[in-house]
Structure formats: C-alpha cells, structure tokens
Known about the structure:
Structural class: alpha/beta
Number of helices: 12
Family: Belongs to the diphthine synthase family. In the N-terminal section; belongs to the precorrin methyltransferase family.
InterPro entries: 4pyrrol_Mease, 4pyrrol_Methylase_sf, 4pyrrole_Mease_sub1, 4pyrrole_Mease_sub2, Dphthn_synthase
Protein name: diphthine methyl ester synthase
Pathway: Protein modification; peptidyl-diphthamide biosynthesis
Catalytic activity: 2-[(3S)-amino-3-carboxypropyl]-L-histidyl-[translation elongation factor 2] + 4 S-adenosyl-L-methionine = diphthine methyl ester-[translation elongation factor 2] + 4 S-adenosyl-L-homocysteine + 3 H(+)
Helix content: 25-40%
Amino acid sequence: MFYIVGLGLCDEKDITVRGLEAVKGCSRVYLEAYTSILMVQKERLEAFYGKELILADRDMVETESDEILRDADKEDVALLVVGDPFGATTHTDIILRARSLKIPVRVVHNASIMNAVGACGLQLYNFGQTVSLVFFTETWKPDSFYDRIKENVDLGMHTLVLLDIKVKEQSEENLARGRKIYEPPRYMSITQAVSQLAEIEELRGEGILTPEKTLAVAMSRVGGGDERERIVSGTLAELLEQPSDIFGEPLHSLVIVGKRLHHLEVEYAQTFAVNPEAWRNVAKNVYGCSLD
C-alpha cells in the first residue's frame, strides 16, 4: 500500500490518528520538503512518529518517484506532505504513477491553507480561484495570476494568493553549469508580495488592485495558534506601509477581498485591521457593503 498522508499546518501533533497509524506501520516513510514547510524540525516529527523520515526534495518527488514507490505493492510506504495531500499537483501526479503501477493507494486528509484561510473571517464559499505569486527577477515577471484575480474580482469573489518559497533552489549560473550548489531558503514576505502586485497593476492598468481601494488580509503561520499565527487586514497601501515584523514569521499568505462582501465578514476581519475605521469606510464606500 502507498499512503500519502497530510500532516496539517503546524507541528508534529497535527497528524490525524489515522495518519499516525499508517506511518507507524510503514517500512519506509518519506517527508516531502519543498511545496511547503512545517513549523518544526524533522527530528521532532521522527521522535513523535517513532520513525526515521527520508527527506524527499523536488528532484526525488518529480523525477525519482519510482524510488519512492519501490516495493509499495509488497509493503507499506508513506509520503508525508504538509497540509492536505491534494494541495499540490505534484502529489496528484505521484498518485497517478502509483495507480499505473497497480499499487494500492490510500490518502489520509488533513487541514490545509485552502480551508484554514477562513480564520481571517472571510467565508470560504465566497472564495474564487487560488493563485500563486512567484519571486520576480530582473528578466522574469510572470503576470498570469493577474487574469485569475480579475476573473475573481469580476465575480465579486475573494482570492487566496499563495506566496512563493524557494527551498533547495539553484541560481541560474549554477543551473546552467550543472553545479549542485543550492541557494539559502527564501520565503516571500507580505511586503514583497504587495509590491509585486502593485507593480503588475501599474503595468496592466485595469484597476483591480488599486492600493488605496483594495482590501486585503495578510496571514502568517495559519494553524499555529495564538502564539504563532498572525492576521493583519487593511488596504494594500496600508499593508505596504507596515513594518515587516507585524506580519510574523513565514509562511505567509495574502487574501484579496472581493466585492461580494458580507457585513459579518467586514466585522470579523475588522478585528485584525491596521485602521478599523478606514477598513469600514473602504468596505462601505468602495465595496458597497451595508454596515448599518
């Protein structure tokens, strides 16, 4: 049996009982370590699970999946992923590979940012397409995300923006020269994300991300509890003005608020606002939300 087990969002205790039982019964257990990260080190997981974990980086998961699936038709093997197993297309691909090899597959679900984003007070059924925002370079500034956000905006839906992480990445020079030298891990900040959104808005000029008139919610370490989780709401302009430490440690996510905004959403998210009065004014005067 090949198990793909969601670990949740925070630490070693977020695994489900069903997931832990599966892990304890496996002969090999891999930890996928590049689409997201937990808030604890691998050793904490190993101590709690009672199993040695084999780190599976991008190369292993995407190009050496046969090694992960080796003998899974004869013994139990698990791949552990942060959040929920279906939070990344990579995990869908390895499940399809297992099925093509006639290996039985069992998925153990868990919490992910896709549902935990509701902690900011915006209702899940008012969310549209989720988009990813990658680090810009001098020569590469992909803007396809803008079209997805615009589609959501046109429907009045909120947009969850997942911010880029770079783990075990090579520089362009080292990649070109075939040198296995990796850059230090990098995690996109809220400030950088808002700056990149504003840059593309200026280039596209369609007015869907006007900094002074677009409400947004910044989220950090969602699921980590009061001592770790941070939620900050305001206009894009207000978020850009804040000191970086107000947003907490990575990982970060950003929500672009849609016009189909309920007054209960306004009131809930207002508790996290940089300027509660300004938050309400924009919600009322720009978004047309009735707050009487």
